[in-house]
Amino acid sequence: MNSIELDAKYYMPCFGRSMKIVKGEGCNVWDDKGNKYLDLVAGIAVCSTGHCHPEVVDAICRQAHELIHCSNLYYIPGQAELAEKISKAAALDGKVFFGNSGAEANEAAMKLAKIRTGRNNFVSFAHDFHGRTIGSLAVTHKPAIREPFEPLGINCKFPEYGELEGLKNAVNKDTAAVIFEPIQGETGVIIPNDDFLPGIRDICDDAGCLMICDEVQTGMGRTGKWFAFQHSNVKPDIISIAKGIASGIPMGAIAAVDGLEFTKGQHGSTFAGGPIACAAGNATYGIIEKILPTIAAKGELFKKGLAKFNPRVRGLMVGFTAGDKATDIQEYCKEHGILINVAGDGNIRIVPPLVISNAEIEYAVKVINESVSSL
Question: What is the reported pTM?
Answer without folding.
Answer: 0.97
